[in-house]
Every structure is written in structure tokens, then in C-alpha cells.
């Protein structure tokens, strides 16, 4: 019921540097099931944007089809959104981004949208290093069509009717790492303290930033025997590295001398502080990241956090030598060669 | 000295066809191009048709050069001088020589069977022997054999060798060794025929002054130029024959005109997508974000793009699709021409969808209509199909030099600026504020008040999701009216009246134009007078309907099996279908007038009987 408006109770809410409250970053009412993990992701996106003091119309929200894809309507109501066709969000994001790189491109997708019908586009957006935040809300099932397994369902996980999945799962993070993504993270919708800084870091990363968010489906995949349930995820949840995102204007107070901390300066602003847990994990090592994820699969642990980051890769804009002034803002006079040039050009066809 | 005038027909000056049979991948394209352009530079109009296989190397290929003093635009179907360079196709090439014509072949290896026809003359030139004696490298010998036949044909028909030499110099400007080698080969063929056949053929090229102010250009190149002049900044594509050269052209023109010499910044973006599902998605994304965006493709690509086409139609995103049609169905004949995607594109995608199409007839219209396509797409906020084909797109056509009016400004349609949005009390994406069925759109990031949610799901005039019957229908009905209104914006039909009043007519479209015009001349000579209307856009305007109303018998000439243009005319107008007689040429070859004449006369004879 997207027509329903939310009650306004923002009088005492804190304001960011643009004098806006989180309410200014919200969208229409969610129509998802109560308790859906996706709504927590939506809330994290709202908070991340608000905290970054970004203008609420500075995003472009792009999605395909599915429960997750619907959520682009539920945040940043003052930004444009486009809910296109199933599995094709990356292509729309590519075209939109090419003609105006100044917006924050947020793609919201699901495991069906990204790992089955849209697997090809997911892979090729990574290969192009499209500058976007790609949030994959991963629940292991098709919700809108009532609970079929998706391609991320683990072997042995059980459907609501008790049937076990026998096909091997596709791990989007492993895929992204092998395809050369420069920012790969895994998170859990139930841990906002981890998710919000990851979203902020992903937004400030110049290039393709994937956050695979385990986001349980309360209606079709939250039962005993499911490896994507809240209970299972909480039980096996294992953050490999703690991520703090520090915006530039706050960085003076940041303590960079802390033992074991890794500091990464984000290309588009801000600093990442990665604090190691007891694991000896360095998220700048791609091979280690892949290995860790594959081992994690065997132990059953769900290893989360910023798994890999590389701030030194040319994004699609750089690779295509696109101009500072967005293509969609260039005046016609800058684009037409004019009458004289046409006359001259045609000598070759005479 | 050999006598080649036994079967000599009457002398034909600047009115005959040279057809060259060769093996693809041997460099014959440049040799054939040299011959054609040399004739053009002699001031004599030419028509060139390249018949090539879907293959990289080793299969038969043919190139036709029609020398036409009357400047006809189509192939004639005749083959007066056949240059048979491919032993595999000798039998077929021999059979195709028009009566009274000539067959030129490589008689390094004698072929008595090529002298079997008594109504033609076979001319042997030992091309391989001449080249093998002169050149050492195997690949060079193959390439130079082609240049040698250029010399032989020039010598036999009177093509000015100094013009050929000038072109070779242009072609290999910075490589004098190549100029020498190529001219040596050309002279081998030339000298041999001059010594052996001192009497030239009765097929003669003679200098005229009928090509001044014209260019030889293919339609894909012209359409690509149109994209540049239209101000298109984004193109996404997946390689597919026969559309590839359109993006190649756009890229080369942009590299020439749109790169900042100081910064190296490119004022364009081309993305080679992973498939057509993605290329259309990218173009839609760029169109949604306020750029002029396009994708060139062919029929199989359109099939894959269909879901997005429906999305762009329903959510009202401008995008231009260049469909360089090839013969279907399925993979079909990728290197043969057809107009077989009319029905597909008119109604592409599931559900009720209707699209705008433009039908260029030649490269001149490709340039002009490419620009119009972007204007129409933005004005009506919808996908526009630019319906060209392999014949127009990949063959060089003689057209008047392209002109550009510097006062042109793109018609961006209704886009609200930040200032306009600021003034508005409230913005709704699909509100028909002006009562002309076209709502206002906004570009992402321009102003918070302009934000809306673009969706392919059911929506109301506010842009909100709806399952309400009345709200859903309201939007759908406006889309129908918007599409109907575009009939007056697409290029109008071109109507040519017969010299005498008649109730009979031909309707055709696109690349059939040249063949139809020539057929009209021939039919008139036989006393059959026909008016002619070439449709240039879809939906059909009132003028198209009025033309049909004012005729009793109308031949609908098109290049597909299922009479798709006729089907659209029946479906979208009130015409009585019994008066529309299909004349269908779907063999994959560029249209020729003989087929049309035959189709029309056969019907008239049957009618009289």
C-alpha cells in the first residue's frame, strides 16, 4: 500500500549537516512482510545516506524484479528510481551511469535477480567496474512466487515443505572476487552496526561495490533446516573484520594507531578503518579472500565484513575517458561537428 | 590475336552490369571498390551490390557493378560481363551471363567447358600465371590476382586507368612499395588484354558529368553520421551482421569530432554489451537519464530486446533502435537482405504495445531520418525503430552530397528544468498537463521535486503503483492516443503520380524504392500507368489512407514472405484488403525492377483472362 503516508514525528529527530533528518531520506511505506530482512537493509541505506550528509536527490536507485527490487521505492523518495525488468538492473545502471557519473548509483537486487536470470549482467557490470553500490539482498528463495529455491540456496538447506536442495549454490562474493571486483562485502540484515558503515564505504568506493546481505525471508525461508534463516545466520555469523567508516570532516579524531587497524582512503571521500578480529585477515588480499570464503563454506561459518577492497582500479568512466561534465549535460553545440565539417568529411566518399 | 566479337551485341555505353565472382577473404572487396569508384569518378552513375557469405574466408562472394547512365538506384538483375575468379562457381557464373554477354576467367588453367555457351563470349586472361611470374609471396599473388583483373576489366571496358592509379595512391599513400606492387598487377591485366584483345568490348564506360555533387556511401555510415549530428552521446551494442558497421562508423566519427584534443576527454560513450538484453537496457538507462541514446542491431537482436522495448514503451523512455534487417527467421541468412521485421517492430514486446517506425530508402535518408528518430523519440518519449536493411546499410549508394543546416536544434521534448520544477506546486510524471497526451519528464538528480519512480508495473497518472482498473486504463489509453498522434510527426509518404490518370498504384517502402521507380518507367513504356506511394513512417498518416482510398488496385511491393507492410496497412487503416495485391520479393537479394514488373504484369494478365 504505497499510497499510505507515514506519520510525521520528526520534530525532535537529530539533523545532519544539510539540516535534514532521517525522514528526509525515507521513501514510501514498505509492502513487504513484517520482519522481512529487506526492510532492515532499507533502513540501513537511509541511515547511511543521512549520516554522509548527501543531498537526498543525489542518488539514482535502480532495480530489477523481485521482493528486493521493490525496496528502491522505500528509501530516498526525493531521488529518481527505476524498477526495470528482471535481472537487467546492471545494464540500466550502466547506461544511466555512463551519461552522468555525478549521482550515487544504488542497485538493489536479489539472489534470483542477480544469480539466475541476471547472472550475466551481474558479471559484466563487475568486469566494467561500473561505479555503483550493488546491494544483493540474499534470502535463498523466490518469495513473490512462493518459495522456490534460488541459486544461492545451500546444499542440504530445506524448503518450507521440507525438501532439501541438492544443487550447489552460487556465492556472489566468490564470483565477484574472481571477476575482479574492487569492493566485496558480506553482511547480515540483522546487524546494522556492520551494514551501515559498509554501505557508506561502498558508496564512497569509486568502482563496483558489492554487498551481499543475508536477508532472511520470514515467510518462506525462516524455518528450521534453512541455512538462510535468522536463527541459522545468527548462530554461524562470523565477522572477519570490523569496518568503521569515517567521513572526511570527522577524521581528525580518528585513532589510526590502534593495533592491527588497516586504514584505507576512499577515492570519493572518507577513510575506512578496518579492525582485525582474532582472524589474521587482510582484506587487501584477493586470493586470501577467495580462500577464506571457500573454507568458510566448509565450516558452515558465514564470514562477513569487508572481504576485499582495492581503491586503485580505473572505473568505467576512467576507462572510457568520459568528460567531467556529464554527457547528459553537454550542450548540443559541443556535440555537433557542424555544416562545414560535414562538407569536408565527404571528400572520402567522392 | 583472338577474335571476341563473334557474338557482339550492340554497343552499350554506360549501361551494363559487371559481376565479379570471387572467394571471400582474398581482398577482392578493395579491388571491386576500385572499379566501382573509378567509374563513378569518370562521372558515370553506378550501383554496387556486394553479395557475401556468412563466413570469414573461403566461400563464394559476388560483387555487382551496374553502370547506369540514367542513374537508376537498383540492381538490374542482368550480368553482362561476368568476371569468374572462383573455380568453384564457374558453372553458376557461366549460366548467369546475360545472353550476348561476356565471361572473363583465369585461363592459366584451360577450361574448355566455359566456352560451352554459344550466345556469350568467354575471354581468358592468365591472371594467376601473370602474377606468379611477377610476385613471390603466396598471399601477395592472391591479392594481386584481384588487382590484375581490375586492369583487365578496365582495359576491356575503357575505364580510365589514370583514375585507378590516383585511387591506389590515395589508398596506400604512405606506402610507396604497395602502390608500385598494385599498379604492377593492374598493368599486368591491362597490358595483357590490350595486346590480346585490341578491340575493346561493346560494353563501354565513357566519361560523363553525372556524378558531380554526389558521394558513394553506405547507409550504416550515413546513419552513424546522423547519430553524431543528432547529438547522440550514448550507444550500446552487441555485434551483429549487418549492423556492426553502424557502430564502427559512429565510433570513428566521434573519435574524429568529439575528443577534446587537450584533455583526451570523450564526449560520447560506446559500450559493447554482453548481449542484446544488456545493450537495450543500457540505452534505456541512458535515455532515462536524459541522454540521446541508441542501439544498432538486427532482427535476432530485436527478439532479445523485446522485454525492454515494452518497458520503455510503458514507462515512456526515449530510445532509438536501428534495425538493420537481414533475412530471417531465426539465424536465417545473416548476409542477405529483407524487410522482414515490420510486424515484429510495430508491436514488439508482450501486452498491448505499438511503436513508431521510420523507413529510410537510401543512405541520404539514413542520415536525415537518424536525426529525426532522436527528435521523435524524445518528443514522444518512446522507443523509435529506424528500419533499414542490409542492402541499404552495407552497400555503397550514389546519393547527393549530405547537407547540414547549422540552425538545427534537437527537439528534446518536454523536460522540466530545475527552475521549472521549483515553480511547480507538485510534479507527477504521467500527468497530461497540456492535454496533448505527452507528459513532462525529469532527469534524475536535477531537483528533489522532480523525483519519481519509473516502473514497468501498472501505474497511474501520478506514477504510483496501481491495480485500479480505471487508473490503469487511463494511462494505457493515453499511450494509444500518443502513438496515434505521432503519425503526423513521422516522415510523410512520397507520392509520384503517373503521367496519365490511373486508378492503379504501387505502395512500397525503404530500399525497394529504386527498383519500383525503374519498374514504373518500364511498365509505362508498356502502357501500364501506376501511381506510386512510398511510406516512410509508421503509424500511417491520413495521407497514406487517402492515397489508398483513391485507388482501386494497389500493388504492395515489399521484401518479406508474409506481406507485412500489407498486413500493417490492413490492420491500422480502414482499407479494403482485397484491393491490396502483394508483390513479395523475399529471396534475400537487393530489390530489382524485373521482379516487380513480373509481379504486376502477371496479375494484370490473370485479371484479364
From TrEMBL, chain A:
GO terms for molecular function: oxidoreductase activity, acting on the aldehyde or oxo group of donors, iron-sulfur protein as acceptor; thiamine pyrophosphate binding. The keyword DNA-binding does not apply. Residues 65-213 form the Thiamine pyrophosphate enzyme TPP-binding domain. Keywords: Oxidoreductase. SUPFAM superfamilies: Thiamin diphosphate-binding fold (THDP-binding). Pfam families: TPP_enzyme_C (PF02775). One of its GO terms (biological process) is small molecule metabolic process. This is 2-oxoglutarate ferredoxin oxidoreductase subunit beta.
TrEMBL record, chain B:
The keyword Oxidoreductase applies. It comes from the Bacteria. GO terms for biological process: response to oxidative stress. The keyword Protein biosynthesis does not apply. One of its GO terms (molecular function) is oxidoreductase activity, acting on the aldehyde or oxo group of donors. Residues 25-190 form the Pyruvate/ketoisovalerate oxidoreductase catalytic domain. Keywords: Oxidoreductase. CDD domains: TPP_PYR_PFOR_IOR-alpha_like. InterPro entries: 2-oxoacid/accept_OxRdtase_asu (IPR022367), Pyruvate:ferred/Flavod_OxRd (IPR050722), Pyrv/ketoisovalerate_OxRed_cat (IPR019752), Pyrv_Fd/Flavodoxin_OxRdtase_N (IPR002880), Pyrv_flavodox_OxRed_cen (IPR002869), THDP-binding (IPR029061), Transketo_C/PFOR_II (IPR009014). Residues 226-395 form the Pyruvate flavodoxin/ferredoxin oxidoreductase pyrimidine binding domain. This is 2-oxoglutarate ferredoxin oxidoreductase subunit alpha. The lineage of its organism: Bacteria, Pseudomonadati, Pseudomonadota, Alphaproteobacteria, Maricaulales.
Amino acid at each position: 500500500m504505497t499510497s499510505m503516508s507515514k506519520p510525521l514525528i520528526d520534530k525532535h529527530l537529530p539533523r545532519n549537516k544539510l539540516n535534514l533528518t532521517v525522514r528526509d531520506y525515507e521513501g514510501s511505506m514498505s509492502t513487504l512482510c513484517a520482519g522481512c530482512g529487506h526492510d532492515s537493509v532499507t533502513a540501513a541505506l537511509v541511515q547511511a545516506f543521512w549520516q554522509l550528509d548527501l543531498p537526498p536527490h543525489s542518488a539514482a536507485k535502480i532495480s530489477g524484479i523481485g521482493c528486493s527490487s521493490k525496496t528502491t521505492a522505500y528509501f530516498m523518495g526525493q531521488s529518481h528510481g527505476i524498477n526495470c525488468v528482471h535481472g537487467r538492473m546492471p545494464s540500466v545502471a550502466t547506461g544511466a551511469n555512463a551519461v552522468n557519473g555525478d549521482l550515487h548509483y544504488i542497485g538493489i537486487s536479489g539472489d534470483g535477480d542477480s544469480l539466475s536470470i541476471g547472472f550475466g549482467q551481474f558479471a559484466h557490470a563487475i568486469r566494467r567496474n561500473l561505479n555503483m553500490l550493488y546491494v544483493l539482498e540474499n534470502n535463498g528463495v523466490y518469495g513473490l512466487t512462493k518459495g522456490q529455491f534460488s541459486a544461492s540456496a545451500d546444499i542440504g538447506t530445506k524448503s518450507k515443505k521440507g525438501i532439501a536442495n541438492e544443487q550447489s549454490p552460487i556465492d556472489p562474493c566468490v564470483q565477484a572476487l574472481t571477476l575482479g571486483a574492487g569492493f566485496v562485502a558480506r553482511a547480515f540484515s540483522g546487524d546494522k552496526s556492520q551494514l551501515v558503515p559498509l554501505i557508506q564505504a561502498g558508496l564512497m568506493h569509486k568502482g563496483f561495490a558489492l554487498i551481499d546481505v543475508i536477508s532472511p525471508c520470514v515467510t518462506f525461508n525462516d524455518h528450521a533446516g534453512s541455512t538462510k534463516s535468522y536463527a541459522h545466520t545468527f548462530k554461524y555469523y562470523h565477522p572477519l573484520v570490523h569496518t568503521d567508516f569515517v567521513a572526511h570532516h570527522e577524521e581528525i579524531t580518528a585513532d589510526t594507531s590502534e593495533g592491527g587497524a588497516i586504514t584505507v582512503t576512499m577515492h570519493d571521500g572518507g577513510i575506512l578503518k578496518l579492525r582485525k578480529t582474532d582472524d589474521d585477515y587482510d582484506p587487501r588480499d584477493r586470493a586470501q579472500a577467495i580462500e577464506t570464503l571457500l573454507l568458510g563454506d566448509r565450516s558452515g561459518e558465514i564470514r562477513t565484513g569487508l572481504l576485499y577492497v582495492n581503491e586503485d582500479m580505473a572505473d568505467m568512466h576512467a576507462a572510457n575517458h568520459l568528460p567531467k561534465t556529464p554527457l547528459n549535460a553537454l550542450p548540443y553545440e559541443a556535440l555537433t561537428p557542424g555544416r562545414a565539417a560535414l562538407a569536408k568529411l565527404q571528400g572520402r566518399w567522392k | 590475336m583472338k577474335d571476341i566479337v563473334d557474338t557482339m551485341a550492340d554497343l552499350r555505353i554506360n549501361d551494363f552490369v559487371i559481376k565479379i565472382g570471387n572467394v571471400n577473404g582474398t581482398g577482392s572487396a578493395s579491388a571491386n571498390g576500385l572499379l566501382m569508384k573509378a567509374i563513378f569518378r569518370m562521372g558515370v552513375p553506378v550501383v554496387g551490390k556486394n553479395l557475401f557469405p556468412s563466413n570469414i574466408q573461403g566461400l563464394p562472394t559476388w560483387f555487382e557493378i551496374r553502370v547506369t547512365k540514367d542513374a537508376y538506384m537498383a540492381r538490374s538483375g542482368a550480368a553482362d560481363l561476368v568476371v569468374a575468379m572462383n573455380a568453384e562457381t564457374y558453372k553458376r557464373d557461366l549460366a548467369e551471363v546475360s545472353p550476348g554477354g561476356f565471361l572473363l576467367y583465369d585461363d592459366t588453367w584451360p577450361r574448355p567447358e566455359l566456352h560451352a555457351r554459344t550466345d556469350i563470349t568467354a575471354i581468358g586472361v592468365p591472371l594467376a600465371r601473370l602474377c606468379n611470374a611477377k610476385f613471390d609471396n603466396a598471399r601477395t599473388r592472391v591479392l594481386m590476382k584481384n588487382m590484375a583483373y581490375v586492369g583487365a576489366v578496365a582495359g576491356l571496358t575503357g575505364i580510365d586507368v589514370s583514375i585507378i592509379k590516383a585511387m591506389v595512391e590515395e589508398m596506400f599513400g604512405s606506402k610507396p612499395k604497395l602502390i608500385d606492387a598494385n599498379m604492377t598487377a593492374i598493368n599486368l591485366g591491362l597490358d595483357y588484354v590490350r595486346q590480346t584483345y585490341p578491340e575493346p568490348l561493346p560494353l563501354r564506360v565513357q566519361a560523363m558529368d553525372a556524378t558531380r555533387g554526389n558521394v558513394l556511401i553506405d547507409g550504416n555510415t550515413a546513419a552513424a553520421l546522423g547519430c553524431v549530428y543528432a547529438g547522440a552521446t550514448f550507444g550500446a551494442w552487441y555485434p551483429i551482421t549487418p549492423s556492426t558497421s553502424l557502430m564502427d562508423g559512429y565510433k570513428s566519427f566521434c573519435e574524429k569530432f568529439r575528443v577534446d584534443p587537450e584533455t583526451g576527454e570523450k564526449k560520447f560513450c560506446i559500450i559493447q554489451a554482453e548481449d542484446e538484453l544488456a545493450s537495450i537496457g543500457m540505452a534505456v538507462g541512458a535515455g532515462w537519464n536524459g541522454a540521446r541514446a541508441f542501439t544498432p542491431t538486427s532482427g535476432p537482436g530485436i527478439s532479445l530486446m523485446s522485454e525492454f522495448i515494452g518497458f520503455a514503451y510503458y514507462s515512456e523512455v526515449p530510445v532509438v533502435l536501428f534495425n538493420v534487417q537481414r533475412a530471417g527467421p531465426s539465424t536465417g541468412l545473416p548476409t542477405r537482405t529483407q524487410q522482414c521485421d515490420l510486424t515484429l517492430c510495430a508491436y514488439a514486446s508482450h501486452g498491448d504495445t505499438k511503436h513508431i517506425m521510420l523507413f529510410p530508402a537510401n543512405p541520404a535518408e539514413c542520415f536525415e531520418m537518424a536525426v529525426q528518430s532522436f527528435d521523435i523519440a524524445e518528443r514522444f518519449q518512446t522507443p523509435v525503430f529506424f528500419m533499414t536493411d542490409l542492402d541499404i546499410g552495407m552497400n555503397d549508394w550514389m546519393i547527393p552530397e549530405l547537407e547540414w543546416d547549422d540552425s538545427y536544434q534537437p527537439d528534446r521534448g518536454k523536460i522540466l528544468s530545475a527552475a521549472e520544477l521549483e515553480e511547480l506546486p507538485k510534479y507527477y510524471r504521467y500527468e497530461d498537463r497540456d492535454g496533448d497526451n505527452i507528459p513532462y519528464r525529469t532527469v534524475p538528480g536535477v531537483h528533489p521535486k522532480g523525483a519519481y519512480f519509473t516502473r514497468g508495473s501498472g501505474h497511474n497518472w501520478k506514477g504510483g503503483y496501481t491495480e485500479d482498473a480505471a487508473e490503469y486504463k487511463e494511462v494505457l489509453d493515453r499511450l494509444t492516443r500518443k502513438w496515434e498522434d505521432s503519425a503526423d510527426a513521422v516522415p510523410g509518404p512520397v507520392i509520384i503520380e503517373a503521367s496519365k490518370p490511373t486508378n492503379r498504384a504501387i505502395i512500397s517502402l525503404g530500399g525497394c524504392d529504386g527498383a519500383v521507380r525503374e519498374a514504373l518507367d518500364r511498365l509505362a513504356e508498356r502502357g501500364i500507368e501506376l501511381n506510386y506511394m512510398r511510406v516512410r513512417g509508421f503509424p500511417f498518416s491520413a495521407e497514406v489512407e487517402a492515397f489508398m482510398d483513391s485507388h482501386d488496385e494497389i500493388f504492395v511491393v515489399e521484401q518479406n514472405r508474409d506481406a507485412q507492410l500489407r498486413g500493417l496497412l490492413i490492420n491500422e487503416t480502414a482499407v479494403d484488403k482485397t484491393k491490396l495485391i502483394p508483390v513479395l520479393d523475399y529471396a534475400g537479394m537487393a530489390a530489382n525492377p524485373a521482379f516487380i514488373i513480373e509481379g504486376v504484369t502477371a496479375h494484370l494478365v490473370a485479371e484479364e483472362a
